[in-house]
Amino acid sequence: MKDFLLTRRQFGITAAGIFVTFTLAPELVLSADQPLPGALSGTPMLDAWVLVGSDGKITIFTGKVELGQGLLTALCQIAAEELDVPMSQIKVVSGDTRLTPDEGYTTGSQSIEYSGTALRFACAEARALLLEKASAALGVPANRLKTAEGKILSVDGRKLTYAEIAKTDLLHHRATAKIAPKPASQHAIVGKPAGRIDIPAKLTGLPSYVQDMRMPDMVFGRAVRPPGPRDRLEGVDIATVRSMPGILSVVRDGSFLGVVASREEQAIAAREALQQSAKWRTAGDLPDAANIYTWLKKQASVDEIISEKKSPNAKQVVKRLEAAYTKSYVAHAAIGPSCAIAVMKDRKLRVWTHSQGVYPLRRNLATVMKMNPEDVIVSHVEGSGCYGHNGADDAAFDAVLLAREVPGRPVKVQWMRDDEFAWSPFGSAMVMQVSAGLAADNSIADWQYELWSNAHSGARPGRPGGINLLAAWHLDKPFAPSSPRPVPVPPGAEDRNALPIYDFPNQKIVRHLVKETPLRTSALRALGAYANVFAIESFMDELAVAAGVDPIAFRLSYVKDPRARAVIETAAAKASWKPGFKSDGTKGRGFGFAKYKNIACYFACVADVEIDRKAGGVRVTRVVGAADAGQIINPKGLEMQLEGGMIQSVSWTLKEAVTFDRARVTSRDWADYPILTFAEVPEIEVHLIDRPEERPLGSGEASLGPTAAAVVNAVSSALGRRIRHLPISKEIIKQAS
Amino acid sequence: MISLTVNGKKRMVDVKPDTPLLYVLRNDLELNGPKFGCGLGQCWACTVIMDGMPILSCITPVSAAEGHNILTLEGLGSIEKPHPIQKAFIEEQAAQCGFCINGMIMKSKALLDKTPDPTDHEIIAALDPVLCRCGTHKNIVSAVRRAAKEMKK
Ligand code: FES
Ligand code: FES
Questions:
Q1: How far apart are the first and last CA of chain B?
Q2: Which of B21, B48, B58 to mutate to test the pocket of ligand 1 (most atoms within 8 A of CB)?
Q3: What dihedral do alpha carbons B95, B98, B104, B106 form, nearest 10°?
Q4: Which of A29, A162, A171, A643 has the greatest number of C-beta atoms within 10 Å?
Q5: Helix (H, G, I), strand (E, B) or coil at A452
Q6: Pairwise CB contact (< 8 Å): B74 & A204
Q7: What is the pLDDT of residue A1?
């Protein structure tokens, strides 16, 4: 806990900054009104991003956090590359309100684009400053010096270490972004596979997660949630539970109920006892699960035409096709339920959390606790895999509410499995309705697309207009959540990837953001893109069949972008796609493609499946993907992200649906909510197209939509009937057979 | 007092006999390998090996472990000297978030002790109940294959 008081200064350096001017090639100079690149624009001081310690160790700072996909390793590679130091000499500090820049949330696979770009420029400039300083010290012009392995080498054989030069406050000055980072052709670390910096510790049982943190005097907390989202606590026998062994506090504030105990199993036992004795007023206000899609379409919504195109040259429509697609609510279902630690002392609060945004969480916590944000320190520590806005922030607030009861003692709150399944926000159910007109030559002359969905974004802590922390809604003086707001496309949220990537003469795309949120929804990997790509790519197949054209050739006739074409063609070639595939009634083949958010990673997928009509089984036997994510930072990492997304997508597509009755969520453990297991995982191949001169593009979410589409198209081809609902349940297969 | 043998060392713990072994390992013995995933015996995140058999520590009362040899992830190897299975997982980069990997490695250890040369089918069957949400399955299977090869040498 000495860490409690550690300040930013202790990481670093003292003394005055120096100012150096450089002569630059004209094209590298930023004009005065040009914003600094990436996240530098918001946090322009160099030493906010990188420090060179007097021991020569480099510390880099990022406001982004590790979500389990290797982001910090990629950032470390970038810094090592620009600074010419080995990765092992770099310490990465991430997501900490005392220490790192405020970069909002780590979401949408943009971290390399923002934080990575900032670090790239900051480290390039830091290296130039080191060189300049060395040049003065050695009396050798900077262009006669080079850097390697954390040292500066002069042509005359003299050497200086970074540590020797960095004694002053060298990096305490505003970034200019006038030092060009290395061109891709000079990269020795970026673009090469690098071992993840966090993996050895995780695999040998060293403390790596917030769940693994232990502190002196630490105690254990549990929250006792209502059965249904809007149920109210009417009565509970607190006295009996207080007398149970080890109980330090039982907290009731309105409908928030929680317990603090000396030992974890005591807290769990008390939670069970409280659950037994609590009397709740059931709201019973969930919609009928059987009619959820009709319900969605009937609700008041924020509607917007997000794209409308009318071409005077559009051909006459001679045939019209229509289809409606639906997708269930999906859960994050991380292997480790949410966890947090909080300690409160003398009106100061310290929180350890696996939140995606430590600064926004701090803002919400400060408001609810009526504290100054400066008195609240929020630090990110990894949790189990994070696929979007899960229960991390809520667990953090639970810990804070409980920590208030035992001042000075850190309280660790570990959500139980059913807390996680019932209370983490869900990926929304969606309805997508498409209609297209074919011209006499079988080309698409007109495309109409409408979608209905609950919010996929906007429900995170720190968003304006409300407090987005679960327990805050249950307090005696409750706070209201902020109301969902649309996110303009691109990137969009509910309507992410609702804009077809294909070039149609006439089109109209309408988004209905349904405001009524009976089941809490928020950002889950790929947001609306998963369902929109599923719908668009399914319908493209339906149109291709109607037009009598091979589905890939059909798509290619609407794609001009050479990068998109290359990705589609690579996937097709690697999977040995042959036009005219005929199913034998059990085997199926399908294709799917998208450019994530219409602005990020290109991904195409071919899926092979086998169906068992009698049992209703679907087995995805093989998926072959191709991706263009611009410049590749870490090929191995990129491949894993894409593969992980493909497997998760197959799991969502074949198996996953949150279940609920009129009162409560009923999928509360792994038996109610099965996910894909080893025996069901397909053979996977991913082919990467490197574009070293292009910007790196976010890719963590790119593979989900296209994979789902490929699987659905494959199953439909095997069945000889169209599947228009996700997940593809056994019943759907049996009914269609 | 309950006496346990964990990773070859005798440990005394003062807990109720029905306390799940998982909490004793994590909170009293300060081990990090076994993870809490569900507490229901459904995910295998909490796997430890008792007398050569992989068990679910979240639903095993500590009293049932008395007199038996418990092996956890920490007992396999360390970051400086990883066990060949840990080494193979590191070499294959077989982890995304890594939360499931304790179960993967411990199940693999139990498998390879009995079946040093497993077929892919045997690897998949052994690991099938261990849940992974990040989709790391492919690299995990490669890691077990690599470990088997290394351990035969
Ligand atoms: S935590 Fe023991 S099986 Fe899930
Ligand atoms: S690596 Fe995250 S759950 Fe398996």
A1: 43
A2: B58
A3: 120
A4: A162
A5: strand
A6: yes
A7: 35
Which pairs from A573-577 meet CB under 8 Å and 24+ separation? Answer: A574/A606, A574/A624, A574/A626, A574/A685, A574/A687, A575/A606, A575/A608, A575/A622, A575/A624, A577/A552, A577/A606
Per-10-residue mean pLDDT for chain B, 153 residues long? 97 97 98 98 98 98 97 98 98 96 98 98 98 97 98 90
Q: Contact at 8 Å (CB) between A332 and A67?
A: no
Res. A434: pLDDT tops 50: yes
The span from the first CA to the last CA of chain A, in angstroms, equals 62
d(CA B74, ligand 2 centre) in Å:
19
Among A50-64, A258-272, A283-297, A430-444, the least confident range: A50-64
Query: Beta strands of A382-443 (E only): which ranges?
Result: 411-414, 430-439
At B32, list the tokens.
Answer: 């990090």
Mapped onto helix, strand or coil, the DSSP state of residue A268 is helix
Residue of B100, B107, B137 with the most ligand 2 atoms within 8 Å of its CB, for mutation: B100
Q: What is the pTM of this model?
A: 0.94
Q: What ligand has the least distance to the C-alpha of B101?
A: 2
Asked if the Cβ–Cβ distance from A68 to B99 is below 8 Å, we say: yes
Q: B2-75: which CATH topology?
A: Ubiquitin-like (UB roll) (3.10.20)
Query: Cβ(A273)–Cβ(A416) under 8 Å?
Result: no
Domain A210-282+332-423 CATH class label? alpha beta
Range A446-465 average pLDDT: 93
In DSSP terms, A434 is beta-bridged to A323, A449
Given a contact cutoff of 8 angstroms between Cβ atoms, the answer to whether A625 and A381 are in contact is: no
Measured between alpha carbons, how far is A151 from A52 in angstroms, rounded to an integer? 12
Task: Tell me the C-alpha distance between A117 and A203, whole Å.
Answer: 30
- Identify the pLDDT of residue A109: 60
Q: Which of the following CATH numbers is that of domain A430-457+492-736: 3.40.50.10860, 3.30.365.10, 2.60.120.10, 1.10.1660.10?
A: 3.30.365.10
Nearest Cα residue to A217 out of A89, A90, A344:
A344
Each residue of A126-175: pLDDT tens digit?
A: 999 999 999 999 999 999 999 999 999 999 999 999 988 887 688 988 99
Residue range A544-581, pLDDT digits in tens: 999 999 999 999 999 999 999 999 999 999 999 999 99
Contact, A518 vs A456, CB < 8 A? no
CA distances from B47 to B8, B21, B32, B70, B110 (A): 17, 11, 12, 11, 11
Structure tokens at A16: 């005055």
Contact A429/A518 with Cβ under 8 angstroms?
A: no
Domain residue ranges of chain B, discontinuous segments joined by +: 2-75, 84-152
d(C-alpha A403, C-alpha B40), whole Å: 27
In this predicted structure, the answer to whether residue A617 has a pLDDT above a threshold of 70 is yes
CB atoms within 10 A of CB A366: 17
Which string of b and e fits A286-318 if b means at least 16 CB within 10 Å? bbebeebbebbeebebeeeebbeeeeeebbeee
- CA nearest neighbour of A506 among A433, A435, A594, A592: A435
Per the CB < 8 A criterion, the answer to whether A538 and A591 are in contact is no
Query: For domain B84-152, which architecture applies?
Result: Orthogonal Bundle (1.10)
Rounded average pLDDT over A583-598:
97
Answer whether B58 contacts ligand 2 (Cβ < 6 A). no
Angle A323-A326-A329 from CA coordinates, rounded to 5°: 170
Q: Provide the token pair at A194.
A: 């690098």
